[in-house]
Fold this protein.
Amino acid sequence: MESRRITAGMGLLFAALGAWIAFAIADDWPAYLAAVAVGGLGIDAIYSAIRGRRALISRIGPLP
């Protein structure tokens, strides 16, 4: 249960970060693309926490 809450919290953080990128600092299409990618990962994490499955961001694996 605790990991679902952490996943949902991280999802909220990523969704808010995507919205901030889109509305505050984006001025051309690469920034909007980054906002969609980050926001999409956040929304997927929230949905995954609700459904009780692994989020896409957790499947990326350990990065160097």
Observations:
- The helical segments are 2-25, 29-51, 56-59.
- The chain has three helices and no strands.
- The chain has one domain: 2-59.
- The mean pLDDT is 89.
